[in-house]
Amino acid sequence: MSIKTPFSKENLDFCLKELGKEFRRLSGKSMPAEIILIGGASILANYGFREMTYDIDAVIMASSAMKNAVNRVGDKLGFPNGWLNMDFSKTKSYSHKLIEVSIYYKTFSNILTVRTVAAEYLIAMKLMSGRQYKNDLSDVVGILWEHEKSGNPIERETINKAVATLYAYPLPDNSLHFIDDAFNSGDYKQIYHKIRKNEQQAKEILLDFEKD
User: Fold this and answer.
1) Once rounded to an integer, what is the mean pLDDT over residues 71-100?
2) Residue 1's pLDDT is what?
3) What residues are paired with 85 via a beta bridge?
C-alpha cells in the first residue's frame, strides 16, 4: 500500500531496525524471521537513482507475530496498518522463485534477516508490471544506467534468462519493445530522464482523473 510519508534509504533502514526489535520482543530470541524487499524498496536499498518510495512491498517468511510487529511499528511511527505490504503475491509480477534469487541485505536485532532482489530479476519484475504511471520503466533504465557506470553492465541475454527463471509466460509486448529500444539506444541517462518526466505527467493525469 502507499503511504503519505515517503521512505528514503535512511528511514527504510530505521523502520526495519524497529521492526526487528519489535518482532524480537514479541516472539523471543529463538524465532528468526526473513523478509525479501521487492520493487521500489529493493531498488532504494541498492541504488542511488531512487531517492524515495511510497510502497514497501515484501515477501515475508515469519511467524504470525510478524503481523503484530508490523502493526505496532506502524502505530509507533504513524504509518497505517499494512505499511509493509504482504499482498504483493497477488500481483502479476510476483514469482515464487523470488526466494531463490534473492540476495542478502542486512540483519536487524540478530533475528530479522532482510534480503533484496538482484538487478536482472528486478528488471524482469518491473518489465512484467510495466506501469507507465509508476516508476517501473524508469527503474529499469536506472538499474541499467548504474550498472553501466560501475563497469558491470547488464546484458540483454541476462534479462532474458531472468524472465525465463521467474515466469512461465513472456513479457508484455510493450515491455519487450521498451527494453529492446533501451538497449539499441544505449544512452541510459537520457532515456531515464525522459521516462521519469513521462511517468510524472502520466501520474498527474491519473490523479486529476481520479479527483474528477
Assistant:
1) 88
2) 45
3) 57
- What CA–CA distance (Å, rounded) separates 59 from 95? 10
Same domain, 96 and 58: yes
Of 82, 117, 152, which residue constitutes the final position of a domain? 117
Domain of 34, in residue numbers:
2-117
Do residue 92 and residue 31 come from a single domain?
yes
Q: How far apart are CA 66 and CA 33, in angstroms?
A: 8
**Set of cell numbers at residue 15:** 523502520
CA count, 13 A, side-chain hemisphere, 55: 15
| Residues 89 and 142 placed together within one structural domain of the fold | no
Mean pLDDT of 78-105: 88
Same domain, 138 and 84: no
| Same domain flag for 133 and 100 | no
pLDDT digits (tens, 9 = 90+) for 44-62: 999 989 888 887 899 999 9
Work out the percent of the chain whose per-residue pLDDT is above 70.
92
